[in-house]
Amino acid sequence: MGQVVVISTGGTIASRWQGSGYAADAAGGDVLATAAVPEGVTVRVVDLMSVNSARITTAHQIALLRTVREVLADPAVDGVVVTHGTDTLEESAFFVDLHHDDPRPVVFTGAQRPLEDPEGDGPRNLHDALLTAATVRGLGVLVVFDGRAHAARGTVKVQTLAADAFADPSGEPVADVSADGVVVHRRPERPAPLPVPAATGPLPRVDVVMHHCDADPVLFEAAVAAGAQGIVLVATGAGNATPEICAAVEAAVARGVLVALTTRVPTGPVAEIYTHGGAVDLAAAGAVLTGTLRAGQARIAVLSAALAATDPAGRAEALRHALAAPVPATA
Ligand code: ASP
């Protein structure tokens, strides 16, 4: 049925007991050995790294993106599976999705239970990811977990421990996946891909600051002072903060910092409704509203925009492009 390359990066799916807790240490071949390979699918493993995903950096994500592209340079390959820790899977998946320009799928998966757990969810998730990678086309980057395939864009980790770890709280799954096959329900809308970042060179600092009762601009301004080229403001409600934070946003934007606005509410878009420090004023101060993207993926959009252009206007345009999703996925 197809040739799939598994890129192994670590996570709980590759984790063993270390004496005091679990950590990723298994190679991709050990992870693959736990799963049933769908009939007719051949698999090759690339061991990129083996880390807990809370330790993933921009440099890792660029290396992963470039590895995906190297693998897909071989026309005999039908699809790619990335095994990844669930903690930051949504960030790496969205980063690859924003730069992915191939109809062949890249399917991220992982596990909530460690490698050798007899009740582990890794074997099923990996089987389903292999099946999806071997069969679908034109859906961009997917997250396959607990019998469902989700579009990378908008999907977040919604459970700390339970098996149904991923969902798009503001959208619907792309497909159901079972031993019988993949049933596609919708085709995600994706913008044209951003240019692939260079393998080396300075990486932009992008920080995340959350608003709350009592919050003043100190942490936001500390991010600017630390050299942040982008900041994601995680506001309350539909995207609201205070007049003092609006002033800090305006000053940061005037210095060329790319500021994006999301919310700490789990579901729904940010919207320009309120003044007196609300999203109306934050937008007027230069913050870019990120629709239904939550903090981790809003940060990836800002990071990708900062990698795509060097000047503030070019970065703001690249961010708006990354957020707009105007072009349907190629079939
Ligand atoms: N700590 C793990 C990680 O690498 C959690 C997981 O994979 O589920 O993200």
How many separate helices?
Answer: 9
Give every kind of bound small molecule, once each. Answer: aspartic acid
The CA-CA distance between the termini, in Å, is 19 Å
The first-level CATH class of the largest domain is given as: Alpha Beta
Quaternary organisation:
single chain
Largest sheet, if any? 8 strands, mixed
Helix content: 25-40%
Domain count, please report it.
2
Helix and strand run: EEEHEHEHEHEEEEEEEHEHEHEHH
Low-confidence stretches: 327-331
CATH superfamily of the largest domain: L-asparaginase, N-terminal domain
Percent of residues in beta strands = 15-25%
Strand elements, count: 16
Q: Give the class from helix and strand content and strand pairing.
A: alpha/beta
Mean pLDDT over the residues: 96
Strand neighbour order, sheet with most strands: 4-1-5-6-7-8-11-12
Give the overall shape, derived from the CA principal axes.
globular
Radius of gyration from the CA trace? Answer: 20 Å
Tell me the CATH topology of the largest domain. Answer: Rossmann fold
What is the annotated CATH architecture of the largest domain? 3-Layer(aba) Sandwich
Spell out the blueprint of helices and strands.
Elements: E1 2-10, E2 15-17, E3 22-24, H1 28-32, E4 41-51, H2 58-72, E5 79-83, H3 89-99, E6 106-109, H4 122-135, E7 141-145, E8 148-151, E9 156-157, E10 166-167, E11 175-178, E12 181-184, E13 206-210, H5 218-225, E14 230-235, H6 243-254, E15 258-263, H7 279-284, E16 288-289, H8 295-308, H9 312-324
Parallel strand pairs: 1-4, 1-5, 5-6, 6-7, 13-14, 14-15, 15-16
Antiparallel strand pairs: 2-3, 7-8, 8-11, 9-10, 11-12
The protein binds aspartic acid.
